[in-house]
Amino acid sequence: MAVDPSPLALNAEKISSAISNYWRVSITPETTSTQNDLSHLARNGRVRSGDICVTEFQSAGRGRLDRTFVAPEKSALLFSIFLEPKRGSNHWGLLSLLASVAVHGAISEVGGISHATIKWPNDLLINEKKCAGLLSEVVATDKGLGVIIGIGINVDMNNDQLPIPTATSLGLESTKIIDRNLLLSEILNHFEARFLAWESGADQEILREYLPLSSTIGRDIEVTMADGQVIQANAQGLTTSGQLVLASGQIISVGDVRHLR
């Protein structure tokens, strides 16, 4: 265990020195939600692809299915990325899976945590406990459509600070003190390489990288749909656009998955 009691502040200069010029990082000490911040800027034509909003604390962070996400100041890595993909929006379903692979790679490198898995579509688990979540949203801009990917990672939370019993943090699982500046830089570097490949049509390569990391495929699961319907089935695989395929043949685009033991 290596929870840092006094984590370093986020530093835009340090982050920017370790990433390409594609990214532009803006750090704010506190906000309601980085996802909302970028969405507001996008609707008003004040954002461009590669802009990133990062914060030390957000008071109304949002997760998937309208869940809230709140973490003590400096204990998490909280950021949102704005993208204007060149490919049509019908291909954007893979972006959240791509992002989860990027986060997995960075956690492995920076934290020395090689046994993390991905619960469909994009929750990062360590020993079946959630350490990171992603939220992908399409937003209208003055030039058309863009996508915002929000990412929240529990970094320096101790047991008392975890939001739920089924959560964990990188600090609790790693023997290393994790610098959030380095972690964000590595996530962006991993993401950029895969994003550029995806823009060139490398969908199958993304899926081939994702599937071995998945702890959902091949398991019995329970899916709660947006309308409240609950389905129990075996998860068989993914479509080419990243949707979940059940043993019955049913295809799930959006739903909350619980692994059945």
UniProtKB/TrEMBL annotation:
What's any one GO cellular component for it?
cytoplasm
- Tell me the ranges covered by the BPL/LPL catalytic domain, including all copies: 26-199
GO molecular function terms noted in the UniProt entry: biotin--[biotin carboxyl-carrier protein] ligase activity
- Keyword terms of this UniProt record: Ligase
One Pfam family it belongs to: BPL_LplA_LipB
> What PANTHER family does the record point to?
BIOTIN PROTEIN LIGASE (PTHR12835), BIOTIN--PROTEIN LIGASE (PTHR12835:SF5)
Q: What is this protein called?
A: Unannotated protein
Query: Which species does this protein come from?
Result: freshwater metagenome
Taxonomic placement: unclassified sequences, metagenomes, ecological metagenomes
